[in-house]
Amino acid sequence: MIINLSDIDGLYNKDPRKHEDARLIDRVDKIDDTIRSYAGGAGTARGTGGMIAKINAAQIANERGIPMLIVNGENPDVLYDILDGKHVGTYFAARKD
Prior knowledge:
Elements: E1 2-6, E2 27-28, H1 33-37, H2 50-63, E3 68-72, H3 78-83, E4 90-92
Parallel strand pairs: 1-3, 2-4
Antiparallel strand pairs: 3-4
């Protein structure tokens, strides 16, 4: 599994910095236009591609049979949560074919 660190908890249905009602997407089984529409632009001044770059990376990994997880890298304990089997962030399932 690839772990991609972000400055937010994962993929949301809209920008959580601008919308209080933004909902975290727990799992993505297929990357399509709807998923891509959630990405928006670069999130912060430090960003080099924003969420769309992470979604593109997930698609490349998934097509090769590798799952990917987007999690908030500002909390280093998130890695312990992952190793403990806790669900955090957004999981992009690998293709099975």
